[in-house]
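Encode chain A's predicted structure.
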Amino acid sequence: MSKQHALDITNKQLCKVRTISTFINLSADKNQWQAILQSAKTQCDRFTHALQNIGYQVQSIRIVTNPFSEYLNTQDLASAKADLEQLMQVLQQIQDNSNEDNHNSQNNSTMRLRFAIGEAKTAQEIALLPELIRDYGDLCNACVNVTADELGILDNELISTCVQAVEKISQITPRGEGNFNFTVNFNCPSYIPYFPASYHRGEIDQGFVIGLETPDLLLASLQNLQTPKQQSYQQRLNQAYHAMRAALQYHIDIIQDCIESANNKTDWCYLGMDTSAAPSKDCTSMVDMYKALGVPYFGASGTVEISALLTRVFKSLQNVTAVGFSGLMLAVTEDSGLAQATIDGEFDIRSLLTYSSVCGIGLDTVPIAGDTSSDKLSALMRDTGTMAYRLNKPLTVRVFPVPNLHAGKLTEFESSDLCNCAVLAVP
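Encoded structure for chain A:
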């Protein structure tokens, strides 16, 4: 790209704040819910306004609780639903009050509020999730953390229970889209800001994490590069690495300063930032990043190398406590380029798992054939989990068995979060 067409990487529109995620503890004492949730919402609003005042767009605010069995009655489905209904009413009242305040202040923006009920820890709790997710959707994100023993062998009984939940969610939610709100975690830490992998176990009472959306910024930094013809391939990748890192560092420093200033004299603990690019259907595709770095298409030879390079960028940033994934995210149905690549047959599910060895997140929002056997799905989760613990990295499995669709057929998702793509086979 010629110099006169260079994009200004200091432009704050290129770097969006995907989420301000707060972490709170709820107890079975419902009389306390209103105050605790209101405090979290007020904290999110404080940071949202601070960031908006300096020119950054905030896309969502999120509240994550301790494990839901600690505050919902999980004795049976009816009891859990009754408690969750009461909780949702409290959240709705808080949101309505916030919207009214924004209207009165002539601030017409309505911030998306998402809620995670924390992790499910037992088979009984996992069995509750399909119907809770069906009925409460965006306000009922949940995860399960699967552990491994000293030999690295995973808890396959727990995995099988998770597979049953995935299958039931697929059957009772339209087009199987409810699996957007459920994931299986392997070696994932507390305080991931992105749903539904986000959870914590009550380590602190009031904390928060920032997550960004930066593919537009990263691509702009590459498009600005002036590459002499005599420059070697190694030199070009080095130059690209430093350009992306510098662009991210510029905005991270500003955002951190803003957050720390807004958090002055509060009793909320800033836990850090997930430095992942966090692509969405509405921003630059990660596929464009690979092409800009010399890979002809995502899935071609060279994809592993560039995946590793991008991951190194996200993990090299200074003056920030990196939390969560802080790596390369490849979310198939949330990225228009990856979705198109499935239609073009440019990668398969085993390729995605291979790329996870040098990046992060695992198998995320991957549509699979609706008739995929339970044994195959369990084995796929065990492969992902084995890689997570063997390589000591956080990986997840969030797959969508799509009813009545076989591999190669196109999805017809209606969620505003999802791109339609080709269903992948599970070998």
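The chain has a mean pLDDT of 93.
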